[in-house]
From TrEMBL, chains A, B:
Highest taxon, organism lineage: Bacteria
Protein name, entry field: MerR family transcriptional regulator
Gene3D superfamilies: 1.10.1660.10
Domain HTH merR-type: 2-71
Species name: Lentilactobacillus parafarraginis DSM 18390 = JCM 14109
Keywords: DNA-binding
Molecular functions (GO terms): DNA binding; DNA-binding transcription factor activity
InterPro entries: DNA-bd_dom_put_sf, MerR-type_HTH_dom, MerR_fam
Length: 145, 145
DNA sequence: CCTTGCCCTCGAGTATACTCTAGCGTTTAG
DNA sequence: CTAAACGCTAGAGTATACTCGAGGGCAAGG
């Protein structure tokens, strides 16, 4: 079974434009062409594209995905290199997840303030403190102009 | 206590360029200027910039951060709007985290294959299957050219 | 045969978020 | 007082990742 670029676009939720762009960027060196020059995708191509999407979904740069694919094309001698690349990337994703969690806690704190029954009073007080701090430093505040 | 743009850059790990860019984009309408036109930051300004960094660290677009800040400047009447904006953003971050976790599992699977003592054999077999699939579909494989 | 739909490439255009340069005013240490 | 350090704006430049239009070839149904 083989697939046209349109079919692959539907299966992967990538646009045809994006697939061609990825090919141009060297992400799809494994895709064959038919006699007319049309890209012809096999199931194993789809599998590799799935991997590419995995890396893209975890925010890997195209440059690095290209490197990974290049390793895959180069054969078993690059297994160590692939492992190192994926390990480094995994660590970056874990760091990103930790960062997201930390920042989400602060957003939750804000949400809690806004949901407090006295939110209006709290905000009003904050605004007065801000203005007081500005005037204490001889600064014009957006509020008093 | 007030701070120069350089001091704020050091405290926030944003570059001076970025701070000025954020100001130009309407993210820092609360920052006052001194007689010479220099930006002069107060502690409460730093606190708001910290919030901006939180939103940025969770990949909020500048356009949406600007909206949030505009709500903050507009006073207590916008508390509901702020809550909705942050809730929607929080949901997006949670979705992103889920996506990261899912994709990380597939990366872990790849890593497991590469760490298998027979990784070389597995990869070799895969490559042969890929070539077989290509030739079965009358396609030239990168490998046989 | 020929129209409609799909495919191709090349190159330009868009969006986002910075990053930097040029030209000029301000502040401060010696 | 003056040179170095710092600040300002406007606008150009960079990086990344698409997204699209123009011009043209290929394939299948009527």
């Amino acid at each position: 079974m083989t697939y046209s670029i349109k079919e692959v676009a539907e299966k992967t939720n990538l646009s045809i434009y994006t697939l061609r762009y990825y090919d141009k960027q060297g992400l799809l060196p494994f895709v064959s062409r038919n006699a007319a020059g049309y890209r012809t995708f096999t199931d194993s191509d789809l599998s590799l594209i799935h991997t590419i999407c995995c890396l893209k979904n975890t925010d890997m740069k195209i440059k690095d995905i290209r490197q990974y694919i290049a390793y895959c094309m180069a054969g078993p001698d690059t297994i160590e290199a692939r492992k190192q690349l994926l390990r480094r990337h995994k660590q970056e994703v874990l760091d990103k997840q930790r960062k997201l969690t930390e920042n989400l806690q602060e957003i939750d704190y804000k949400l809690a303030v806004y949901s407090n029954p006295h939110a209006r009073d709290i905000i009003d007080q904050e605004r007065q403190a801000v203005t007081a701090e500005k005037t204490a430093n001889q600064l014009a505040s957006w509020a008093n102009q």
